[in-house]
Design goal:
- The chain has 279 residues and is of the alpha/beta class.
- It has one domain: NAD(P)-binding Rossmann-like Domain (Rossmann fold, 3-Layer(aba) Sandwich).
- It is built from 8 helices and 8 strands; from the N terminus they run E-H-E-H-E-H-E-H-E-H-E-H-H-E-E-H.
- Strands 3-2-1-4-5-6-7-8 form an 8-stranded mixed beta sheet, with helices on both faces.
- A hairpin with a 2-residue loop joins strand 7 and strand 8.
- Helix 3 runs parallel beside helix 4.
- It is globular and about 50 Å long.
Length: 279
């Protein structure tokens, strides 16, 4: 493993499940871990846990933000840009499965905005800092469960299905990964997506499926590998199943569809995509 000591790493959704275990692993390696969560109580508990494990040798920062709000995502980016001189790794991990169709305050389908659009916006706003910190890496935690993006029913106003919403958002994340890699050529910033492990033993998986097939530790190793291991240095624009390179849904390999998703995502984010002025 590459020495992650002193690296600054942001992990979204780091107060539970895979994100929490990934944050613990980075902290154990001596990284400066930027924790993110939407629950003040869980966020503080995670921060205190890492502090007790690591003692005073490292700093842990915590950021409260609800990723169902695009304005909250922009505020999160603003705080990070204002408080940190570098960002070596961004792990876009936060995700949900909503059994019923719900809309965010922006009027967007909840699963789509939390799993994909919030990370599209956050990544775009943090790109200047990532480029400044190059070589830097972006890791998008996707899923093997992928459904083609239906632009005629993007917010699933017709025929909502929880797994359809989830799998569409995850394919959107992979498509964003591939398209972003093209935009980041020769910048020193790599971006890859992965399915960390199948049905890990997390609360979300238990509540949705009622059973598990793998462990959070398995998924953690796959995420950490893409984030800091030397063996994948310079690898970008790829999709992995665990630690093995794999093929995503075929829609992800159509450059016209990827470009369309990019344009639609920019339209949905609107003026919130304007560069953040560091305070």
């Amino acid at each position: 493993m590459t020495d992650a000591s002193d690296a600054t790493i942001l992990v979204t959704g780091s107060t539970d499940g895979l994100g929490r275990r990934v944050a613990q692993e980075f902290a154990a390696e001596g990284a400066i871990v930027l924790l993110h969560g939407r629950s003040p109580e869980r966020l503080e508990a995670t921060r205190e846990e890492l502090r007790s494990q690591m003692g005073t040798k490292m700093a842990n920062y915590s950021y409260l933000a609800d990723l169902s709000s695009l304005s909250a995502v922009r505020d999160l980016a603003q705080r990070i840009l204002s408080e940190h001189e570098r960002l070596d790794v961004l792990v876009n991990n936060a995700g949900i499965i909503s059994r019923e169709r719900k809309e965010s305050e922006d009027g967007y389908e909840l699963t789509f905005i939390v799993n994909y659009l919030s990370h599209f916006l956050l990544t775009r706003l943090l790109l200047p800092l990532l480029k400044h910190s190059a070589p830097a890496r972006i890791v998008n935690v996707a899923s093997a469960g992928q459904s083609p993006v239906d632009f005629s029913n993007l917010m699933l106003e017709e025929g909502y299905d929880a797994m359809k919403a989830y799998s569409q958002s995850k394919l959107a994340q992979v498509m964003f990964t591939f398209e972003l890699a093209e935009h980041l050529k020769d910048t020193g910033v790599s971006v890859n997506a992965l399915h960390p492990a199948s049905l890990m033993n997390t609360k979300m998986v238990h509540s949705t499926f009622g059973y598990t097939m793998s462990t959070v530790e398995e998924g953690t190793e796959a995420v950490v590998r893409l984030a800091v291991w030397q063996e994948v240095e310079g690898v970008t624009g790829r999709y992995f199943d665990g630690k093995r390179e794999a093929r995503a849904n075929r829609q992800a390999y159509d450059p016209r569809v990827r470009k369309r998703l990019w344009i639609v995502s920019e339209q949905l984010c609107g003026r919130l995509l304007e560069p953040v002025v560091r305070r």
